[in-house]
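Whiteboard transcription, Tuesday session. T.W. wrote the structure tokens on the left side:
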């Protein structure tokens, strides 16, 4: 009886082992696509290793496509047209793309696999994005979770960007696909030989954890600039910046640019954090408001347990904006923070008379 059971167990284990070997072999066979051709905008023809995502295939050829979600298909920034060879639209794409976009053959580059020859159309502005070799020149601890990291540009030595845009940071580890994450530029466009990033360490976040280990002298590869979230310079309306957490980063760039260029526009900064230590760069804006009569700084703390040393606004920044900002003032709004904050602000902005076309936001 015991010997029969032992034989059965050995046979079962052998069957499982055989299936595993079969699946590994099948995976290897399916992944061996050889080289495929990608024709871009009827101009360039690229030869790449098959099997990778279209996003990574293009990046390997120095064509940089925006992506803020690390290729998970959730941000929707990597839209390109795939005219031939892309296969069926995936369920992950159908959650992001509209029916009209799908009809136009738009796809998410991170979700399309280069298994066959492809014909694609990439927005021309993407072709102007550059890769930058940098070295860390300064690291500052702002809170227990946020670090301010400044990168000195080595090659090319300068960058041209609009205040509010972002760069992508790349992390390449042996035997793994490259990891890309987007971070807003916090420095002024006038300081064009550096890039400052404000990085919040996320539990389990591969890139943010890695960036928090950087020290002065370390090398890093960035690409950019990216993004349609940037300061509009065609009007003289008031500029309303509303930020939560590290959503402050692009607002710093916008406000620095307006200040240094001496643009005569009224600027509001509504900035919310839970406690005073988390309100990083607070004193910088306090001093700026003293020097610039056109700049108004409205910070708020949401933790009810904050001590008596805080004499400013209390409560969510959405509530403070509703109480403080005057209705009817011609303005355009720039929002950066968690989706729940931005979703709550949109109707409040409309109630103040700010038109939907004058509201720009970046959710993270």
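and on the right, the sequence the group agreed on:
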């Amino acid at each position: 009886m015991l010997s029969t059971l032992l034989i059965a167990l050995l046979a079962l284990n052998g069957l499982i082992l055989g299936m595993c070997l079969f699946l590994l072999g099948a995976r290897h066979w399916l992944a061996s696509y050889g080289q495929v051709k990608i024709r871009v905008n009827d101009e360039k023809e690229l030869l790449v290793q098959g099997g990778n995502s279209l996003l990574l295939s293009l990046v390997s050829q120095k064509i940089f496509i925006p992506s803020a979600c690390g290729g998970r298909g959730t941000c929707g920034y990597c839209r390109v047209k795939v005219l031939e060879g892309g296969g069926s639209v995936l369920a992950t794409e159908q959650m992001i793309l509209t029916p009209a976009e799908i009809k136009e053959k738009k796809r998410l580059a991170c979700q399309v696999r280069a298994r066959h020859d492809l014909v694609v159309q990439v927005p021309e502005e993407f072709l102007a994005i550059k890769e930058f070799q940098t070295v860390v020149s300064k690291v500052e601890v702002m809170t227990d979770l946020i670090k301010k990291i400044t990168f000195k540009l080595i090659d090319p030595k300068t960058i041209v960007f609009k205040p509010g845009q972002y760069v992508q940071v790349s992390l390449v580890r042996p035997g793994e696909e490259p990891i890309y994450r987007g971070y807003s530029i916090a420095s002024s466009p006038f300081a064009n030989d550096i890039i400052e990033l404000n990085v919040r360490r996320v539990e389990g976040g591969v890139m943010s954890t890695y960036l928090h280990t950087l020290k002065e002298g370390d090398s890093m590869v960035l690409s950019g600039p990216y993004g349609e979230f940037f300061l509009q310079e065609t009007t003289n309306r008031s500029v309303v910046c509303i930020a939560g957490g590290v959503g402050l980063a692009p607002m710093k760039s916008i406000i620095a640019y307006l200040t240094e260029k001496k643009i005569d526009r009224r600027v509001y900064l509504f900035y919310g954090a839970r406690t005073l230590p988390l309100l990083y760069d607070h004193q910088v804006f306090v001093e700026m408001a003293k020097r610039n009569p056109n700049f108004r700084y409205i910070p708020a703390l949401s933790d009810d347990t904050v001590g008596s040393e805080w004499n400013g606004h209390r409560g969510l920044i959405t509530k403070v904006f509703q109480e403080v900002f005057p209705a009817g003032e011609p303005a355009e709004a720039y929002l950066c923070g968690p989706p729940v904050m931005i979703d709550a602000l949109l109707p409040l902005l409309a109630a103040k008379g700010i038109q939907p076309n004058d509201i720009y936001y970046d959710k993270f």
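Someone added at the bottom: The chain has three domains: 35-126, 129-226, 238-363.
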